[in-house]
Amino acid sequence: MPDPAFFPRPRAVALEEIAAWCGGRLADPAQAYVTVSGVAPLDAAGNGDLAFLDNQKYLGQLAATHATACLVHPRFVGRVPRDVAAIETAEPYRAFATVLAKLYPAAFRLEGAYGGHAGHISEGAHIHASARLEPGVTVEPGAVIGARAEIGTGTTIGAGTVIGHDCRIGRNCHIGPNATVIHALIGNRVIIHGGVRLGQDGFGFAMGPRGHQKVPQIGRVVVQDDVEIGANTTIDRGATRDTIVGEGTKIDNLVQIAHNVVIGRHCVIVSQVGISGSTTLEDFVVVAGQAGLVGHVRVGAGAQIGAQSGVTGDVPPRARMGGTPARPMTQWAREIASLKRLAERRPGRPRADAAEGQEQEG
């Protein structure tokens, strides 16, 4: 539930306005002037709260909810209790996100940990004399901004964060506390959460019997507009070319991206994924949690990689892959089902097809 200490409770808003925000439609127009002043999940919602249903798994909670209103797909409108106002929308979760951004703008536009006002540069920050900060940049205590770095207006640099020399950071970005950004170019409206490490050496060594010789990494990290990078994720700079994260891509916490990786536009990379060097993800690729990708492979546009999968070769566009080594999801599912049936057979018990053959011979 939203804590008013962190996210102040919004003003009461009429349901007709809520519907207009998200492009929804009130199932009962007579409820247009009913108001909500908060949000909550179905099972915890009460008077004045807006909830949503995006998964039929929670139809039981919908039947028992005490919410004032619910965003719901048209096919489930008939399941909404009579005393709950239904707002029809083809995409309830996306509609809910739109409404949340309106009701709780502070959660949508991240604030610094220190809580200072926008555009304030703390006396406890360390900014090189040659760095260039546009008006409206916020720099919190303990932050370090290196020589010739450039930062655009509306950007927040969190407490304890280090921005290396010659880095470029665009406008309206948020760099969380204790992050490190070196050898990097960052676009506009980029969110980098706390503890992220951006632009450090890639893992490059010329290995051999005389020892492992370090290979200098002389590339950069380029992060395009509207990217979000989760806490404690690491993205290595390129060896002789750039590591690139395409616009609109969303990266979860605890992801490792190696040198020379190229990630396309609007990809989704979930927690604990590891992507080895010189791998390319084309646009709109989804990589689920704990998947691993070897180096020098290409994942085609729109492909989906299942959780805990191991990708060892190129993946065609729009393919759905699972397992280790990763193979088409339908094939992997059949193999798992076959293994399960094999494991469930009792020792000494003949297979069904063998038993049928014996009966026919008799």
From TrEMBL:
Belongs to the transferase hexapeptide repeat family. LpxD subfamily. The keyword DNA-binding does not apply. The keyword Repeat applies. Residues 34-101 form the UDP-3-O-[3-hydroxymyristoyl] glucosamine N-acyltransferase non-repeat region domain. This is UDP-3-O-acylglucosamine N-acyltransferase. The active site is at H259. It catalyses: a UDP-3-O-[(3R)-3-hydroxyacyl]-alpha-D-glucosamine + a (3R)-hydroxyacyl-[ACP] = a UDP-2-N,3-O-bis[(3R)-3-hydroxyacyl]-alpha-D-glucosamine + holo-[ACP] + H(+). Pathway: Bacterial outer membrane biogenesis; LPS lipid A biosynthesis. Pfam families: Hexapep, LpxD. Keywords: Acyltransferase, Lipid A biosynthesis, Lipid biosynthesis, Lipid metabolism, Repeat, Transferase. Catalyzes the N-acylation of UDP-3-O-acylglucosamine using 3-hydroxyacyl-ACP as the acyl donor. Is involved in the biosynthesis of lipid A, a phosphorylated glycolipid that anchors the lipopolysaccharide to the outer membrane of the cell. GO terms for cellular component: membrane. Its EC number is 2.3.1.191. One of its GO terms (molecular function) is UDP-3-O-[(3R)-3-hydroxyacyl]-glucosamine N-acyltransferase activity. The lineage of its organism: Bacteria, Pseudomonadati, Pseudomonadota, Alphaproteobacteria, Hyphomicrobiales. The gene is lpxD. Homotrimer.
